[in-house]
């Protein structure tokens, strides 16, 4: 038995030695080291081995276009955006700032109301999953109705001027008024003083629109979008200041080349969102000149948003002189030499300024 065990051990040892010899021969054939050192007598040492470079053949391939784009921003979307927008009247008095929800609007319009103050019309469509507050919400005017309806939007407000109320009552328009027909879909924030504390949410507005049997899907106007916008031949516009009427109120924007966005300021202070404390930004700034007429002692305005007029489009650090026209689709488009100018994909802020004394006098570009 002992002899058999010794023979078995000797066999294993021979096999192990054979494996070691073969391993050494293979190592010698492969060079052993990744970067072998030259011997003392080697006058032409081999260069170090270089790892092969893996070229990404896709770097020069244009990425595929997204399946869908949001019609009001030109940004990629995971779904086809056909839901009806909400056009929300946002208070812009100093006690109402900072507002909530504006970063989630596709488009924002700033238009004069009485006394030289401005009101914002925020158009919400593509970001319909936003769950935060929107407001403070205030009353509506006839020209604000026109802006909201140009997007096919449900009008969202609290009260109206007499002329606006006359247009809305018994008209069949898609209208949600906290005072007259839809109070259940608004709420008051007790942390702020009335009347600057009225809010709603998209879910509440969607519920209210459904209860009132408003069309859920609509076709919104088509706008032109391009990554390089329409800045060919434009003049530098790193900083933009816009004046309406009051010297105590000034809107300005500063361009950030890294993000290709303009940051918004009011009277030199960042205009922020109350909920997130982030500064409002936009890819496109549009300024349009329109005739303004005061027609009563209260200072109510009639603003002509039909006849067209001078305009300026500011994007990508440049400004382009152009004109605005109301198209057959009911929307306002910016035109130059008979062609519509393209927006940079992203948000657009419109500003409607008076024509007096001049349109150009309401804009400063540096």
Order of helices and strands: HEEEEEHEHEEEHEEEEEEEEEEEEEEE
Residues in helix, %: 10-25%
SS summary, helix count: 4
Main beta sheet: strand number and arrangement? 12 strands, mixed
Runs in which pLDDT lies below 50 for 5 or more consecutive residues are: 1-57
Description:
With about 375 residues, this protein is an alpha+beta fold. The protein contains 4 helices and 24 strands. Strands 3, 4, 5, 6, 7, 10, 16, 19, 20, 21, 22 and 23 form a 12-stranded mixed β-sheet that branches. Strands 11, 12, 13, 14, 15 and 24 form a 6-stranded antiparallel β-sheet that branches. Strands 1-2 form a two-stranded antiparallel sheet. The longest helix is centred in the first third of the chain and has 29 residues, at about 1-30.
Characteristic terms for this protein:
single chain, 366 residues, alpha+beta, 12-stranded mixed beta sheet, 6-stranded antiparallel beta sheet, 24 strands, 28% strand, globular
List the helices and strands and how they pair.
Elements: H1 2-30, E1 68-69, E2 76-77, E3 86-90, E4 107-112, E5 118-124, H2 142-150, E6 154-157, H3 162-168, E7 175-177, E8 187-188, E9 198-199, H4 202-211, E10 235-236, E11 239-243, E12 250-256, E13 261-266, E14 269-270, E15 281-282, E16 284-290, E17 292-294, E18 301-303, E19 309-315, E20 318-326, E21 332-336, E22 339-340, E23 348-354, E24 363-365
């Amino acid at each position: 038995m002992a002899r058999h065990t010794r023979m078995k051990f000797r066999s294993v040892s021979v096999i192990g030695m054979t494996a070691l010899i073969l391993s050494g021969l293979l190592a010698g054939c492969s060079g052993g080291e990744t970067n072998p050192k030259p011997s003392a007598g080697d006058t032409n040492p081999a260069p170090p081995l270089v790892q092969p470079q893996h070229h990404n053949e896709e770097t020069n391939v244009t990425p595929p276009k997204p399946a869908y784009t949001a019609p009001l921003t030109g940004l990629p979307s995971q779904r086809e955006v056909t839901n009806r927008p909400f056009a929300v009247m946002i208070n812009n008095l100093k006690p109402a700032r900072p507002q909530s929800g504006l970063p989630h609007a596709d488009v924002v319009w700033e238009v004069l109301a009485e006394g030289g103050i401005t009101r914002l019309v925020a158009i919400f469509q593509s970001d319909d999953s936003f769950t935060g507050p929107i407001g403070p919400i205030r009353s509506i005017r006839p020209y604000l109705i026109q802006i909201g309806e140009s997007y096919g939007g449900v009008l969202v407000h609290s009260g109206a001027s007499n002329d606006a109320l006359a247009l809305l009552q018994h008209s069949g328009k898609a209208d949600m008024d906290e005072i007259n027909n839809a109070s259940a879909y608004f709420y008051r924030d007790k942390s702020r003083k009335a009347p600057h504390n009225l809010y709603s949410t998209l879910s509440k507005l969607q519920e209210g629109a459904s209860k009132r049997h408003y069309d859920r899907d609509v076709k919104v106007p088509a706008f032109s979008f391009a990554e390089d916008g329409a800045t060919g031949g434009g003049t530098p516009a790193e900083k933009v200041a816009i004046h309406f009427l009051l010297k105590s109120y000034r809107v300005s924007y500063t361009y950030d080349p890294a993000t290709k966005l303009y940051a918004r300021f009011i009277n030199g202070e960042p205009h922020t969102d109350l909920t997130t404390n982030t500064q409002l930004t936009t890819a496109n700034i549009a300024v349009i000149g329109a005739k303004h007429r005061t027609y009563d002692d209260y200072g109510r305005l009639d603003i002509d948003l039909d006849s067209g007029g001078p305009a300026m489009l500011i994007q990508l650090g440049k400004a382009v002189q152009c004109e605005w026209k109301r198209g057959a689709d009911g929307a306002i488009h910016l035109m130059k030499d008979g062609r519509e100018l393209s927006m940079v994909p992203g948000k657009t802020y419109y500003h409607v300024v008076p024509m007096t004394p001049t349109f150009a006098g309401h804009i400063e570009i540096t």
